Every structure is written in C-alpha cells, then in structure tokens.
What does this fold into?
Amino acid sequence: MSTLAADEQSLDGVLGRVAENFGTPAFVYLTDAIEQRLAELRARMGRWFSFSYAAKSNPNPELLRWLAPRVEYIDVSSIGEFRLARAAGWAPERASFTGPGKRDSEIEEAIADGLGELVVESVREAVVADRVARAIGRVQSVLVRLSPSRIPRGFGDHMGGRPSPFGLDIESVAEELPRILALQHLRVVGFHIYSGTQCLKPEAICENYRIFLETFRTVCADFGLTPQRLVFGSGLGIPYHPADRGLDLTQVAGGVAPDLEGFIGDVRFHQTSLTLELGRFLVGEAGYFLTRIISIKESRGSRIGICDGGMNNHLPASGHFGMVIHRNYRMHRVGGGEALEKIDLVGPLCTSIDRLASGVFLPRLKEGDLVAIHGSGAYGLTASPLHFISHPLPREVLVEGARLRDATRALSFNDAKAPRAGDQPDEKAIN
Ligand SMILES: Cc1ncc(COP(=O)(O)O)c(C=O)c1O
It folds into this structure.
C-alpha cells in the first residue's frame, strides 16, 4: 500500500504513483469518481429508482467489496459472478441472476444459496428453476425478462427488436408467460427488460424507457398482475471517443419524469419498486488503463509507440468489442507536454489488430513514457483475451482518496466461492 501526499493527488500524480508502486500495465479505479457518479444518479433518478450494479461491467473483487454498502442490488450473469459478489460481502437476497444460457448447476447453486431473484429468460429455464426449488422445498422469486419489439436508434448494442436470445419475445408472451405463471415453486414478482446499451442520446433513452413502461403496463394488465419489482436496463452510455459528448442526466430525468410519474400514479404500480440496472455509467469513467511505452519505431513515415499492454488487456480500446469502426479512446500522456505529434499506439502482441490508437495526437512520446486510456473502468480486463501470447496479467489498483490499494484479482472464479455452512473439502480425485 502507498499513501499519497496531498499535493500529489492530481490525476497524473496518482497515475505516476500507481506505475511506480505497482508497475504497468495497470487498470486504475478511482472510487471518488464512482461516489460522485452515484450521487448524481441518486439526485437525478433516485426519486423513482433504486440501483442495481451489473457485475459483468467490472467484477473486480475489491471494487465489488467497495460497492456492496453503497448500491442496493447486484446483477450477476454467471455463477462465477455470483460467487464473487458473495465473497465480496453481498447478501444473496440482494442479487439477481440474468443471462440466456444458465446451466442447471448454476441455477441449483444460486437458488440453494438464497438468490434474491432469478431473471428467467425462457420457459425452459423456468421449468428447471421450478424443479430445483421444489427439490429443496422453496418457492423462488423470479423476474421474467421481456424482449421488446422495438428499440429507438442510438444504442450501441440491441438486445431486442430483432431475433434475440434474451428473454421472452413480447410477441410470444401470451403463449409462454402462462406456462411460467403456472409453475408452483416459482413466484413471479415482476419483470426485467434490458434491450440496449451505450446510448448517449437523452431522447432515445427516454423513448426506450417509455417502451419499457408500455410493455410492463400491457403485460401486467393482460395477466392481472401487480408487480413487486420492475427492472429497467439503463442503457446509459459514456463518452469513449474524443468527439463523444457525455450524457446529461438532467435531460434524461426531465424527459421521462411525466411518464414515470404517470406510471407510479397508476394504482397497479403504487407499491412497485423500480430498479435501474447499470454498469458502465457507474464505473466506466472512473477507470484508466495505464500502459508504458516500451519502444518507438519510425516506420515508412509513421511513428509507432509500442506499449507494454494492448488488446490482450483491453480489448474494447483496441476496437474489437462490438465496434464496427475503430475509433480511438480518449487518452493522454501522463505528465502532459506541449507540441502534439501524430502517433500510432500498438500493444505487445504479434498481430496487427493489437492497436490502441491510430493517428492520435499526443505530446511527443518517448520510451518509458506512460499513456492513460480513459473510460476503462468497465469492460476492460474481463472483456479481454488475457492469455493470448501469455504476457503477465495487468495489475489493478483501487484509489480511495489518498490510498492506493492493490486490487489485482485472482484469475479463477472458482477460488472465490463463498463458503457455506456444511461445505466439505472437495475429495473428488481422478486417477
Ligand atoms: C442484462 C444486462 N444488464 C446490465 C448490463 C450492463 O450494461 P451497461 O454496462 O451498459 O450499463 C448489460 C449489458 O450488456 C446486460 O446485458
């Protein structure tokens, strides 16, 4: 652990100390920035919503531990994420479990461990969950995930409005929902919609929430249901590229306020708790990927900086995580400098797709310099092909005020299994 003097607390001071104390490449997460973001979310959207953290965006164990007392719920999408959350201090009843391909064993473990809500994505999954719950004498709370028929333009990924593995298609609800409602060991407590991510257009986000409201209203009216909980996949995006403008939450809140007020004014939804499920908007901009220039090559009229971490550590920044066109992430040279110069930045892999920046203008870089890539707090390390070419794994550092803490994670999720009463050591042996 290393403590910063007050005068070193500028961003570059922090990043420099991270490199000095922990080495590079490294992901750096600033908890003060997450705290601010959370305060902003509560100020703008907290009138209507509680919040659920999507663990997939960044399941770093230390980060999960830091978030546990600050955010109401957590959404996991595998038993590995569930175990990580449990080991980080999240009570199981605060967890929901989404994902279109849950294995029977995952459903069994989560239900046995007291999972709050299983987000059922198909009739098949509901039947499995019902069997599991019956076998242990439980009634499991479930949210049924719905896939709307329409998503406004402006979202980075579409999980509805086209053939999709996620949830019940709204066109099939009349046939499929009764089969789920009839299962004796499941209690349908509400619905879940997550149909689009990474949107920077307030009006598109408002329009999407209106689609959710209409969908919830119709399904609940058709089946005479009064839901306890409705989960809204936030879709809130962050500015990754220099030309992106950050989302103005005031506009989102203002745009959707009349619709939400009308909705909760309806007697059917008086007692319903609404939850906004989100990942990147909470933690994405609080993270930086820090890499050091190993060497500079002048090649056929271009200047190329070769970095100690690249696509193997940070796939999204290299443009291979759902982007059609590669655009540079926001980045800066740690320590600043004048005289901008055009340079390409690549990682250490033996493939020409390992590229962190094409023709970016930065102060003149030399060997040993540090570059910080912004917007790296979500979908960084765990969205990357870490083992490709077997370079050392990147470090992860949590910065809490003046404190730097090594948050580098153990690689195997299985190591993070939360101990349960009656757990026996695994004595299975293969000869
Ligand atoms: C079900 C579900 N919840 C939450 C998220 C988190 O999205 P974001 O990080 O964009 O907020 C996703 C992203 O794909 C998702 O599929």
In short: Residues 54, 57, 75, 98, 194, 197-198, 233-234, 277-281, 378 surround pyridoxal-5'-phosphate (CB under 6 Å).
